[in-house]
Design brief:
The structure holds two protein chains of two kinds. By secondary structure, chain A is an all-alpha fold. Chain A has 14 helices and no strands. Chain A has helices at 2-40, 45-50, 60-69, 74-105, 111-121, 127-139, 147-150, 157-170, 173-181, 186-197, 199-215, 218-224, 233-241, 249-283. The model of chain A has no long low-confidence stretch (mean pLDDT 87). By secondary structure, chain B is mainly alpha-helical. Chain B has a single domain, classed as MetI-like (MetI-like fold), CATH 1.10.3720. Chain B is built from 14 helices and no strands. The model of chain B is unreliable at 1-7 and 303-313 (pLDDT under 50). Classes of the chains: A mainly alpha, B mainly alpha.
Chain lengths: 285, 313
């Protein structure tokens, strides 16, 4: 009897150990390349050619200077990417929330039909829209400006859908009625009651839209291709990649690290919100 | 009095949705119809030809006979299929481990967070990074040749079609398995524990329970994952474009439909109508396949579940 119990415990221990081993192997596969990238950003080209290392070097600032010397303006990219990502994230979150709030709080004609239509539109992949959008922006003279990358953020059907579910669960009509009796304007009620109530959801959605905008490549490639002064980080990285074989490897690793560091910092702090956000969106379907 | 007051406020609904509606119609809906329109014209990126003339189905008929288009379609399917299958299996195994109530493995939140990390990184950087890793004098060759001595001499991975495909497939799997696993865990934890308890009383083991309870009940979530992965995967662009260049070389081995569309749009071709037609065909292909998948995998008892849900709500 004790022997049976023992062998059961041993078997259980082995299975658990194998599971952890599996987890750790995948952990290394996911973190390893990123870790190596960050380490190499601090080593000089000679050291990098000498072989991989687990410990950082001392050439961080040297690489920084050499990258600027290569004529690749990472700071311009950070500036342009920040303008696009922050403004489109703000517009997406604010106007999606406003739209969802209207659908939840007010009764108006065609509300249902409108909502079903919008939901159906979330299924259409962005690819169908790009060529038509590109030609249309040319007609309006808006190619090679930030406008086509920022303004459409106001209409984000998937985010509206998320906020509608969110507000239906958290918004109390009594609170709104009470505010009305106190003489608050409808717009004031949205800003002072609706927005704060939805803040946690808005935060999660905000992170997702920011990451999407920050990493976005195809849109900027089509719409900003002709003006290098407006190139966002991904476009600058693409130009830098052409240099991979010829020039300063340390500087190139440094440039790559710059694109990842903001995302890694945000993720390190808020990974809890982000991971729970992924599942939220999917299981509701 | 109160009721009248609340009715009179309802017109604010129109004011609040107005920005969304205006931008939606002008910046999303109109461009979609514009793509459709352009696909029936010979519009080009050239002064005076941006609108083009109506040419009927010409673009579509020449596309169907275009050898490069056929190649792009089969590449795209191959790259998606070979990344989706291992990704799904890996995610299922991981999710079963994360959700296991028998073994209660610790640290699940940390592992989930790390497995999702590659999805957040800039695809341009990922492609550039692996290009550097796999270059002739890069770290992988240094390890395989110098440190481990497995290979006699360095291999120029970028020069082989098969190697390039494997790298693109690996990167797609690397970027997406974490997300798939997290979604599957959420699906698994929503299965009632009572089902497992009664199965355990009946003497079922872990493996049996996984195949008899978990998998069948997870079908709707898996279908959702498959369809979103398919619609997104057929749009594949960033990784192959940036890892293997705009032609997806060597031998166009990783040229996807969207990359082909971009090729035809950019110079020297500069064909707007033709690339519009490529977009339309890609959209039709992914929608038709998504609908077929829904048809095939939707079980008859799905209807029952829906009914129950409707009664509950």
């Amino acid at each position: 009897m004790t022997q049976n119990a023992n062998s059961y415990l041993i078997k259980r221990w082995i299975i658990k150990a194998l599971c952890y081993l599996f987890f750790i192997v995948l952990f290394v596969i996911c973190i390893g390349p990123v870790y190596m990238l960050l380490i190499n950003a601090t080593r000089n080209t000679v050291q990098i050619h000498g072989g991989p290392s687990l410990l950082p070097g001392t050439s961080f600032f040297e690489n920084w200077r050499s990258l600027s010397a290569l004529g690749i303006d990472v700071w311009l990219g950070i500036r342009n990417s920040s303008i696009v990502a922050f403004s489109s994230t703000f517009l997406t979150v604010y106007f999606s929330l406003l739209t969802a709030y209207a659908v939840v709080v007010y009764n108006f004609r065609f509300k249902k039909a409108l909502f079903v239509f919008v939901l159906a539109m979330t299924m259409i992949p962005a690819n169908l829209y790009l060529i038509g959008f590109f030609q249309y922006m040319h007609t309006l003279g808006l190619l090679n400006t930030f406008i086509p990358l920022i303004v459409p953020a106001i209409a984000a059907p998937a985010t509206v859908f998320f906020f509608k579910q969110y507000l239906e669960g958290s918004l109390s009509m009594d609170l709104i009625q009470a505010a009305r009796i106190d003489g608050a304007s409808e717009f004031g009620i949205f800003n002072r009651i609706g927005l704060p109530l939805a803040a946690p959801g808005a935060f999660t959605m905000g992170i997702f839209s920011f990451v999407t905008a920050w990493n976005s490549f195809m849109g900027p490639l089509f719409l900003l291709g002709g003006n290098q002064d407006l190139h966002t980080l991904p476009l600058i990285m693409m130009r830098m990649q052409g240099d991979t074989y010829q020039r300063d490897l340390g500087a190139i690793y440094f440039g790559m690290a710059i694109t990842l560091i903001p995302i890694i910092i945000v993720y390190a702090i808020f990974s809890k919100y982000i991971v729970s956000g992924i599942a939220l969106g999917a299981v509701k379907e | 009095m109160k009721k009248k007051n609340s009715i009179s406020k309802d017109y604010y609904g129109y004011i609040f949705i107005a920005p969304f509606i205006i931008i939606f119609i002008t910046f999303i809906l109109f461009p979609i119809f514009n793509t459709l329109y352009l696909s029936f014209t010979d519009a080009r990126i050239r002064p005076g030809s941006w609108r083009g003339d109506f040419v009927g189905f010409d673009n579509f008929t020449s596309l169907l006979g275009d050898h490069m288009f056929h190649m792009a379609v089969s590449n795209t399917w191959m790259l998606w299929l070979f990344n989706f299958i291992p990704q799904m299996i890996l995610a299922l195994v991981l999710a079963a481990m994360f959700a296991s109530t028998t073994y209660k493995l610790k640290g699940a939140n940390i592992f989930k967070a790390v497995y999702y990390l590659p999805n957040l990184l800039m695809p341009v950087t990922i492609a550039a990074l692996f290009n550097t890793f796999l270059s002739l004098h890069g770290p992988l060759n240094q390890i395989l040749v110098g440190m481990l001595g497995i290979m006699p001499e360095a291999r120029n991975f970028g020069a082989f079609a098969l190697d390039t495909r494997i790298v693109v497939i690996f990167l797609q799997t690397w970027m997406w398995f974490g997300q798939t696993a997290i979604v599957l865990v959420a699906g698994m934890t929503s299965i009632s524990p009572a089902l497992y308890e009664s199965a355990m009383i009946d003497g079922a083991n872990q493996v049996k329970m996984f195949f008899r309870i978990t998998l069948p009940l997870l079908k709707p979530v898996m279908l959702f994952v498959m369809v979103t992965s398919l619609v997104g995967g057929l749009q594949m662009f960033d990784i192959p474009h940036l890892y293997a260049g705009q032609f997806g070389n060597p031998d166009n081995s990783v040229l996807t439909v969207n990359m082909f569309m971009n090729l035809r749009r950019s110079f020297p071709s500069a064909l707007l109508g033709y690339s519009g037609a490529i977009s339309v065909l890609l959209f039709l292909m992914s929608s038709v396949v998504a609908l077929v998948l829904f048809r095939i995998f939707r079980e008859p008892d799905d209807a029952k579940v829906k009914k129950v849900r409707r009664v509950n709500s």
